[in-house]
Amino acid sequence: MAVAHGSRDPRAAVVVEDLLDRVRLARPELDVRSAYLDHAPPTLGRALAGLRAAVVLPLLLTAAYHSRIDIPAALDAATARDPRLRVRQGEPLGPDPRLTEALERRLAEAGVAAGDPDTAVVLVSAGSSDARANAVIARMAADWSGRGWWAVRPAYASAAAPSPQAAVARLLAAGAPRVVVAPYLLAPGLFADRVRQETLAAGATAVAGVLGQAPELAEILLDRYDGTVAGVIDGPGTLVRSVV
Q1: H or E segment at 206?
Q2: 168 with 190, same domain?
Q3: Count of domains forming the chain
Q4: What's the whole-model pTM score?
Q5: Alpha carbon distance 16, 146 (integer Å)
Q6: 236 shares a domain with 182
Q7: Contact in structure between 92 and 60 (CB atoms under 8 Å)
Q8: pLDDT one-digit tens code per residue, 161-191
Q9: Which domain holds residue 223?
């Protein structure tokens, strides 16, 4: 059971299903289903109804409120309704080094050569009120800087600073020959559209597409599944939130 944030934008669910189709092709023996935390059906509780066992994997790029609070609360409610349900929650997609590879894949599709020393990158996440989640993005940017770029700087589409357009402006003011934007976002929607519009207006040369159905994400999701089911689930109503 892959759980995405959900969006009012219908493109988002299409991208989630395309990603899960990659997983289905790689592991046809698995029963791969989707659920959403908000804005799109089915909810996690409804998706779990009638099942006897499930591995729940957050389609989230960092561990924050949704993976720490919302999903466990939904699982608590589901197991309270049906004590026979056995469920195990895995870890979010990130952090993982393969996400940097996926980001560079999307930049290459936008015409940006990986590790170009004349190019600075703004790594844009959705942003969170959880400082730990934002710190993960800052560490990712610092690590990614070591792959040859002029610089890599973090930015946040909401809830934290700097904003994507401010990060672009700062890099240009610091002398970066060229600034491009890498959205650390799973699916299209309001954030992705706003990031593209505002960073191009601020002087960015290119904005990559969202991560979407990049093959690296399918690999990570399957690894999260394998790690989560490595232990046997014992007894009805068992809930293990994190075993990876």
Answers
A1: strand 206-207
A2: yes
A3: 2
A4: 0.91
A5: 31
A6: no
A7: yes
A8: 999 999 999 999 999 999 999 999 999 999 9
A9: 2-93+215-240
